[in-house]
Write a structure and sequence with these properties.
The complex is a heterodimer of chains A (360) and B (97). Helices cover 44% and strands 25% of the residues of chain A. With 360 residues, chain A is of the alpha/beta class. With 97 residues, chain B is of the alpha+beta class. Classes of the chains: A alpha/beta (360), B alpha+beta (97). Strand 13 of chain A pairs antiparallel with strand 3 of chain B, so a sheet runs across the interface.
């Protein structure tokens, strides 16, 4: 039997909390409802026991809803969060979604709106119990492929990894074809499986699609897993080796690939955890540039937290001699110098491709 | 069904506007709404100046920085030791570059 859902309601108005409690008690799943009158109290409750959903108001004294949600998203990433507010404001909606809330409700005013609100809440709770949408989203690509095959599905799975896009075709639960950029068949399948993040979409099947993959899906996944394990084992072995390593050579090759992008003047790639540079190309003083990259990203990350402006996507620096773009992704920090003739849009486009293809 | 609140503490809005800061970190002029907390303006100014100093120390001849947040775009231009800073909120219709 599924564990009972627990909802934590946060609002500074006691009367409203009573009203919400009454309304939410009509939910078919009969969740337990807890209430908190302040952000601090809500966080203390969340720390003391697991909850399924936090339903928070925005306008509150001392610690407002955005502040609470920013803390909660970081401390309890699995917790579902929803905003219930009387502030009908596009900006707060955008900021709430930027923080990562699951849904933003304006306080319902009619019985129809209350019904819709309850349906949404029930759906959010159901997703946790049954592992539906978010469950699938949080699963790896391997899990998604297994789900398609086990359900004997005939469909096409479209996967986007930044600017890269791939497709895998299924016929009666078997993988029959795959494409990824200029690759097709098994190499494309392996390439797609090497992507660690991305979005996917399940499309209608294409019965006319010719079969190019004849291995079972278990065999394909096993090969991918073996390749991944071997790469990991190699990486671990090489980390323990203090001399120049194959992983470093691989990173240098990444830097070299980035350097071939149109208008790139220099490249620096480093770990965001250690001060050690992973690789650089055409940089006069990599230590200094690495330090600047790290401190600039940190400075604006902290500022984003203070302003509740969300995640820092990318920072561009424009100059009379050259432009610079820095970004952080997958525990790596990247700083690239671009020719001055490139526009900000061209730099953004190049960075998007580079981050998707080489920094993941 | 839902009643309105008796008291409504105001949320701090991210605002679109600009301000200038001198080399000493003093805010010289601002088009930001008065509701936008001065402390946050000073915090932005402090970090922008710090970044321009770091840019000089790193020998990077940059005169403008654009910081792309999920909900805000911050653009700062170096201005004779100070800076002019533009804040532009991002709506849900915008896409993150």
């Amino acid at each position: 039997m599924a564990a009972c859902n627990k909802i934590l309601l946060l609002d500074d108005d006691e009367d409203l909390l009573d009203l919400y409690r009454e309304i939410l008690s009509r939910l078919p799943s009969k969740p337990q409802i807890y209430t908190a009158l302040s952000g601090a109290r809500a966080i203390a409750l969340l720390e003391s026991e697991p909850f399924t959903l936090l339903l928070s108001d925005l306008s509150m004294p001392k610690m407002d809803g955005l502040q609470v949600l920013a803390i909660v998203r970081r401390k309890f990433p699995q917790l579902r969060t929803a905003v219930l507010t009387a502030v009908p404001d596009e900006q707060f909606r955008a900021r709430a979604y930027a923080i990562g809330v699951d849904i933003y409700f304006e306080k319902p005013g009619t019985s129809q709106e209350i019904k819709l609100f309850l349906d949404c809440i029930e759906s959010l709770l159901g997703q946790e119990v049954h592992g539906a949408f978010r469950g699938v989203q949080s699963k790896s690509l391997v899990d998604i492929i297994q789900l398609e095959c086990l359900s004997q599905s005939s469909s096409a799975l479209k996967i986007a990894n930044g600017v890269q896009e791939g497709k895998i075709w299924f016929q009666n639960g078997e993988v029959i074809d795959a494409t990824a950029r200029d690759l097709s068949g098994e190499p494309a399948f392996q390439k797609i499986l090497s992507w660690k993040t991305g979005n996917f979409e399940i499309l209608a099947s294409d019965p006319e699609r010719p079969r190019t993959i004849f291995k079972s899906y278990q065999g394909l996944l096993l090969e991918s897993a073996q390749a991944f394990d071997e790469a990991q084992a190699q990486a671990i072995a090489e980390v323990s080796n203090s001399d120049s390593t194959a992983s470093e050579i691989a990173e240098r090759s990444v830097v070299a690939s980035i350097s071939r992008f149109n208008g790139v003047e220099f490249v620096l790639l480093q770990s965001s955890e250690a001060s050690k540079q992973t690789g650089s190309w055409s940089v006069e003083n990599p230590e200094q540039l690495g330090e600047w990259t790290k401190s600039t990203l940190q400075t604006f990350r902290e500022l984003g937290d203070i302003l509740h402006a969300g995640h820092v996507g990318q920072i561009e620096g424009l100059g009379l001699q050259r432009h610079v773009a820095i970004a952080s992704q997958a525990n790596k920090e990247l700083c690239i110098g671009f020719q001055r003739s490139l526009s900000v849009e061209q730099i953004r486009s190049s960075m998007k491709t580079i981050l998707a293809e080489y920094v993941c | 069904m839902f009643s309105s609140k008796k008291r409504r503490p105001s949320l701090v809005r991210l605002s679109t506007g600009c301000f200038t800061v001198d080399r000493d970190g003093q805010i010289v002029a601002s088009t930001l709404p008065q509701a936008f907390p001065l402390m946050q303006v000073q915090e932005i100014a402090h970090r922008v100046l710090k970044t321009f100093h770091a840019i000089q120390e790193a020998n990077l001849p940059l005169t403008e920085i654009i910081v792309n947040y999920s909900a805000l775009i911050l653009t700062a231009r170096e201005l004779r030791g100070g800076a002019i800073v533009y804040l532009s909120t991002r709506s849900l219709a915008h896409t993150v570059p």
